[in-house]
Amino acid sequence: MLSSAARIFELSVGEMLWSKRTIFMALVVGAPVVIACVVRSLVWLGLPVGSVDGVRITGPAIFGGMIWILYLRIIVPLLGVFYGTALIADEVEDKTITYLFTRPVRRGAVLLGKYLAYLTVTGCVVLPSVVLVYVLIAPIGSNLGASFIPVLKDLALLAIGLAVYGAVFAFVGAQFKRPILLGLFFAFGWEQVALLVPGYLRRFTIAYYLQGPVPHAMPQEGVVSLFQAIVRDTPSLATSLAGLAAIWLVSLAMGLRAVERREYVLEQ
Length: 268
Fold this sequence. Notes:
- 36% of the residues are buried.
- The radius of gyration is 20 Å and the shape is globular.
- The protein has one domain (2-261).
- α2 (20-44) packs antiparallel against α3, α3 (59-84) runs antiparallel to α6 (107-137) and α3 packs antiparallel against α8 (179-196).
- It is 73% helix and 1% strand.
- It is an all-alpha fold.
């Protein structure tokens, strides 16, 4: 299983790097870098960056907000949807899955190898962009080294988010037709609504467990009450890691099972 997955991984990394989705990924992760360059330019020109309740916003606060809003809520789920659902669905759509399944390897190894390639490609693009944004933003009104440990936690958390979202949407892509629509609905429909609704619905989202380990202090004052309601109910670190691990293991296992048992009918 592992040796076969390694062969599929070697094949898939090159395909992903030279696919059209790589251009899309570069544009997505490039947006925070552009924003960071604009903010840094304002500082160099001596213009005010912004303030909340009369207190000037520091670089680490801006960086933390970008991690919260841009990376965890938009970029990581979006990459998970577009890459995770395509691991098997693209092979079916291109009618090339037959060539993979006729090789003397287990079907599950195909998904596992492609999933590892997805983690490698997205990680090598997303994580360096975070470091670049940190270097541009963090020194504003603060010591660069003071927030170095939190940024390491950010990188680890983003890697976990990519792994969990990728596993969930890999299962969706292996099990359902038109998986990208289901993925977009889950990430930007269900999760957004469930986080706003009081009660236990938010516990059935990935975003709920991702917000627990974030090293940056969440806003408590000076923001709209709606945002306060979203971030107030935060799980503990142990609960977050356990929830993310359970979602990852179950989703990946279900994805492997779906690939092993499902009969893929190619449309003429």
